[in-house]
Amino acid sequence: MKWTRKDLITIEELSKGEINLILDTAEPFKEILRRNIKKVPPLRGRTVLNLFYEPSTRTAASFSIAAKRLSAEIMSISTSTSSVKKGETLLDTARNLEAMRVDMVVMRHSCEGAPKFLAERINASVINAGDGNHEHPTQCLLDLSTLKENVKTFNGLKVLIIGDIRHSRVARSNIWGLTKLGAKVSVCAPPTLIPQNIDVLPVDVYYHFDEAIKDKDVIYLLRIQRERMKKGLFPSTREYMNLFSMDRSRLKQAKKDVIIMHPGPINRGVELDGDVADSENSVILNQVTNGVAVRMAVLYLLNGGNKNEKIIE
Question: Annotated catalytic residue: which of 4, 81, 86, 252?
Answer without folding.
Answer: 86
